[in-house]
Write a structure and sequence with these properties.
4 copies of one chain form a homotetramer. Chain A has helices at about 15-30, 35-40, 45-50, 55-80, 85-100, 105-115, 120-145, 155-175, 185-200, 200-210. By secondary structure, chain A is mainly alpha-helical. Chain A is elongated. Chains A and B meet through helix 6, helix 7, helix 8 and helix 9 of A and helix 6, helix 7, helix 8, helix 9 and helix 10 of B. Chain A binds a DNA duplex through helix 3.
DNA sequence: TATGAATGAGCGTTCATTCAT
DNA sequence: TATGAATGAACGCTCATTCAT
């Protein structure tokens, strides 16, 4: 009779369940989320979940894929047609928004940390995403070097790893202590610092007022 | 008869159990570690654990206090009698060593992330440690500013938050993908970058031009 | 295939489990009955019990409600259309039967005594039942007084409390020492004595003066 | 140094522990009382208890013996040199006092009911006490019959059983619902009723001041 | 006479999963 | 497509008991 009794139902059971699972995993972690809880929040029975997913891990995998895809799409579209320095700035902004948005936060951090030291296929997925993210950043930096915007002697790999570190570490601190930790300000500070160091002498000298460096 | 039948036993049951619990929590997280597993690794029965600790949470609290104390001691003693810039460099080194040492790693990261969004007293403990760490870093930076070593217009609070972010984020990536992520190099890159930006023009030149340093 | 594999199964899992729980609680008390035992006697696993009841206390509550309802129904229907003196006699008989029947006995006594000094909602339920039972008896006595069958100066409240005491105390002794304690004879003696004292002089003399009775 | 650090210590460890055990068993029942609790309330360790008693059951036996002895002494001394009717009245008073006194109540009722259907030697003890109590009452009634104070055709055995029932049932209700059940009044009502029925016609009239009653 | 560490069995409960309908 | 009954293993925890000191 009533096609919509509960909340968050779209008619595509699998998709709805994935969304609710993401929300639960983000809040309680993978181990802290029971199939029962997901079923309850979705307004269905446990059996329905096992109709759509072979196991809890399978549901997790679907959730992780969904989020990774969405994150990568957002990052890429944020950089479209932007100069390298502007791209770095925008990526930091996207990460900050992503972390403070209503229903997404914590998912990646929680899952990434929780799956450390396990061998699930889902860990491989997350490792892959991190590698792709670092490679993406590195390519931006290299593009800046190729375009004579950034110093040619900078270690693009190390800077990409560092950028990623700043994002992850700032997110983590923000989740732990949101009242005392400013995620945006921290990432802004980071990008400023990195660009200061990356930009060619002319720009750098302008700011530092000095001559010789490198 | 045999004072040492199993592994890792020192005669102080409570202390041994705390050490083993830390090791388990670091590997599998709090929820992922069963009391049974700790008991098995310690070579005792579950009952023995409950003889020393009132609950699993109590054991966790003991483990957290132990590690926090040890970490803070190491950081402080690494900075003793060092100049501000050298202090920052040494703290990064301590963090890298701490993260790659045999039986300690992952504990703080795992627990910090896992306890996000809960209200256990242990979370408060971790929040406190993070705040103290940031305050410690900020004071070092301010000391550098007061001693005319660092630029006076730098935002010490933001830089302290950023330093902490870099450490946490680099640790996290290292744990997830140790073969492809160089923790030491990332943190070294970070400290170089930060000191470059912090140091006054004259000092920076002095250092990189060679000679005087230390 | 086989609709009836084990013992005492009706197809209504919840109802069956309640019946078996009553039987166990009656024999071993609440604390003395493990969920495992109930499951074993029901021929299911513990999990099945937790599918139907949220907790052991919930199962107890269901059991208590079931018995209270059944007892009150029996008492009321035994009194239907009977004169007050006859009602008292019949209630005593119902209590005696109730106490000596195959699968019911001891449940109320065990639970009542065991739950003394606790504050569970189930205790409130039992207190309520006792109060209702005493009120029911008191109303019967008052009806006898109103109908000039019983002495008007008798304390109906005290006699109702006393009647209840005799039933409970006789049941208790019977359960402890069934070979040496005659439940029926004790309650019969009690009702005789009470009616002797309650009945108006004329009626009493008729009985004791000999003749008619029997 | 300090021979008396805690509460309730007399120097006789076994006796102290018995007293505390009685208090615990009375409050929580046998199954509901852990050795740990008794030890804690006594201010000693569990080992100390096992030094004095071979097992929990052994401790229970000691507690039961202690209470039975004390109760029987009180009942007997209450009847010393009293006429049969007065004896019955005093026994009811002793029972009421016993049940409402500070540290004794509930013990007998709790244990008696809890041990129903078990075969512990302690049950035999309680059965024995109940039998002796009924025999004691029966002998008092017979003495009244022999002294022409009570009707010769009364069933002394049944009346003794009934007296005991009233006491146990009134105690039970009182413990369950002390605010709404008057133990003293109920037992007084009972003794009045029983003596009214027992006393010879002449005596009864003598007591109530004559013939006319109602 | 007492302690305190430790055991081992058991308890109430949770949970991922299966399956007949 | 979904339900709901049921399983079985594991979990955090309790407790009577033992034993070296």
């Amino acid at each position: 009779m009533l096609p919509e009794g509960r909340s968050r139902r779209s008619g595509d059971g699998r998709r709805d369940l994935t969304a609710i699972a993401i929300s639960c995993f983000a809040r309680y972690g993978y181990q802290g989320t029971s199939i029962d809880r997901i079923a309850r929040e979705a307004g269905v029975t446990k059996g329905a979940i096992y109709h759509h997913f072979r196991s809890k891990e399978d549901l997790l995998a679907a959730a992780v894929m969904d989020r990774i895809g969405e994150f990568e799409t957002r990052v890429q579209s944020a950089c479209r047609a932007a100069a390298p320095d502007e791209s770095l700035r925008r990526i930091a902004e996207v990460c900050a928004q992503h972390a403070t948005s209503e229903d997404r936060p914590r998912f990646a951090i929680k899952l990434m940390v929780e799956s450390i030291e396990t061998n699930d296929p889902v860990v491989e997925e997350m490792r892959g995403m991190m590698r792709r993210f670092r490679a993406f950043l590195r390519n931006i930096i290299r593009a800046g070097q190729d375009g004579a915007l950034f110093r040619a002697d900078a270690d693009a790999d190390a800077l990409a790893a560092l950028f990623t570190s700043a994002v992850i570490g700032a997110e983590t601190q923000f989740y732990l202590d949101p009242k005392r930790f400013s995620l945006e300000h921290t990432l802004e500070t980071f990008v400023d610092q990195m660009l200061d160091n990356l930009r060619l002498a002319g720009a750098a000298q302008a700011r530092e007022g000095g001559a010789i460096r490198d």
